[in-house]
Amino acid sequence: MFECRFIHQDSLAGVCLRGRIDAQSAPEVQSRLLELIFKGERRLLVDLEAVDFLSSAGLRALLVAHRELGQAGGELIVFRPAPNPREVLRLSGFLKMLKVVDELSEAGVGEQLPAAGELAAEVEADGIRWRFLRRPGTSERLVPVGSPDKLGQSDYTAADVVSVTPGLFLHGAGLASLGETFDDYRDLFGESVLLGGSFFCYPAVKRPSVDFMLRDQQVAGSAFKFLHGFGFSGAGHWLAAFERPGDPVSLDELAAVCLAASGFSLAGLVLLAESQGLWPMNLKRVPLRENRPAGGESIFEPGRMAEWFNFPVEPGDFNQVVAAAGFLVKDVSQAGAAVRRLLPDQSSHHVHAAVFRRAPLGRRPEVFEAELRRVTETFEVLRVQHLLGQSRFGAGLACLVELEA
What we know:
Elements: E1 3-9, E2 12-21, H1 26-38, E3 43-54, H2 56-71, E4 75-79, H3 83-92, H4 94-97, E5 99-101, E6 118-125, E7 128-134, E8 140-141, E9 143-146, E10 162-164, E11 171-178, H5 182-185, E12 190-195, E13 198-203, E14 211-213, E15 224-232, E16 238-243, E17 249-250, H6 251-262, E18 266-278, E19 280-283, H7 302-308, E20 309-310, E21 316-329, H8 337-340, E22 349-356, H9 368-378, E23 381-387, E24 392-404
């Protein structure tokens, strides 16, 4: 008789299995393991002591969990396999691939990786659990690109395009495109985001697909074409891991706590998180002069908004991976004119996000850079959008760079 139940041994979560693990029972094993992974567990114990038969279908369930955990910096630990599963693991080569132990002490219970920085705080506020790491470094510059002034009147021309060479800054956002000549890319501007040097653009066309250029695939002499936007560099002075079990964290809440904890007045934000309902906006048309509304009306006029923007009446994109870049302002009234010019009306942040297909994320702040690269280079990207402050996240990692205007 097959049985699968959740267990918690010391600091390890996992499953205890009994009976046959074959084509009939393996889907449940895989489902239970993935459930734990997506809840944030990164070291899973699989107790095989009472398993009397393990087929290749059961091996595949373990392999799927092993690969998901490995990609997220985790580990699958097989505990006390009975004679049949142990022999199957040996013949298949899994004894060399997986950590197989007969005592919990062999599993490294409670071991921690060294932090790449000084642990600044572990706090809980409003039900949100935070772990902050502080790293030394000097402030970076927030670099404006182009001008947002012509957006409202849809008055951009070829003369307004700014070429941004890869490497000018690592992270950024704006209204941009890819291409060599203006006639080639003029109809393909849209919400864009630069993440660790990799560029993602969502053209303002009827059936958009994300175009992108990964940082290691960029041709010498190429450039990103911006109508307006901003960027910044820096490895990050504050790293944070956050979660609020059972209750998502909004972008507004995230921004406020990060600024308060870091003490920064102006900060660049790079975010990796699991979405729990996004409130996004993106352009439906390119704001070139030939597309401007008759009579000189602004595209932000209430009667024009639906014609020019996709915006939600309810949240969307649940349980996806979000990789975002933008900047946060602690006190808009004290910010300079150059910074206020880059902010949407009545907002203290400007953030663009690439939305990727769901997959597990690492949850330690010290792995942020590796996770950002893994997400941008291996995950399937779905869209790029401007995020409103009520966008919500279940858990994630945040990187803050202290900025000066």
